[in-house]
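Everyone, carefully examine this protein record:
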Amino acid sequence: MAKRKFPHLADELLIQVCEMFLEGKSTSSIAAWLTQELRRDKHEPPVTREQIYPLINDARQRKLFTLNTPLEITLNRRIADVYRIKDSNRVVVVKARGPSALDHVASHAATLTLKLIKELGRVKRQVHIGLGAGSTTLKIAQNLAALLRSEPQLPHLVLHALSTGSRVDQPRTAPVAFFGLFDTTGITMDYVGLFAPPVVRSRDYGRVKEQPGVSTSFAVANAIDIVLTSLGSASDEHAAFNRFLAESPGDVTILRQHGWIGDVQYRPYSGTGPILRETSVRTVTLFELQDLVRLAHTRNKYVVVVSGPCGQCGRTRSDALRPLLTAPDLAVWTHLVLDMETAQELLPA
């Protein structure tokens, strides 16, 4: 332990110094106050502003205060340690739990996306953003649109629909439906839609991708710089992919036989990697899981995966998120945004 520089100073004075510092008072004003206090009893040389910092360190050594790391930061660091993530800043644990957690997670994901847009804007004139389907991405898009409206300077933005969406009874959760949120004066924005059937037979998929309009969307997919997507859990009955499969029980059986645990962009995976076994039907989506892995390992490309609780039942998706942290073939992300309950479930007891 370093030697205390002011061993004679009373604890009461040290505590007051720390409180004044935390209140935002300048070191010069704190030094002047302390000089006056010390001269009440005996003649002491004036305290300089440079001495305030060693005084605070003395207070710490005397255990007059302790630093308590916020739980969300502790969880962030533990996840980075347990899953050997080199840059803990790539994992954002949001201080939220319960019914409102998804709203907070979406808000933080939007803020992170704006930060990435600005970073790319320093090296690119155009930034392309791919939006996934679903209620989580809808919330992110709503928050991001609001943030963009208050930004004085932005690069030219291009929004891409990553999929058609799979719910004909919920068109507002399709990516093309999000575009209207950004159609605001002051934001220079272009759009690339994806107009294809919500469900196609797997054997026809190659032909569907070559259809006019659809082929154009796939042709420019490599321009996408930032992917925004959530994930689904095979054990969550409300997940969009699960509802999509409700009319194909044979496909559900096939996927479960292959260890299906979750999906990203309607592409299923097990605990070790993508499920390559073809099902009878599928959705149309710009990226397969291996494409997202490649994107996540490309310089100046980002994949933001958001794992908040289910918006209907509140169930977490930690079971589906864990393989994305452990399996190299599922390293589809550069940034993760999750709530506290999900983070805690990812860690050993």
About this structure: The mean pLDDT is 91. The first strand starts at residue 91 and ends at 94. Residues 71-346 form a domain with the Rossmann fold fold (CATH 3.40.50.1360).
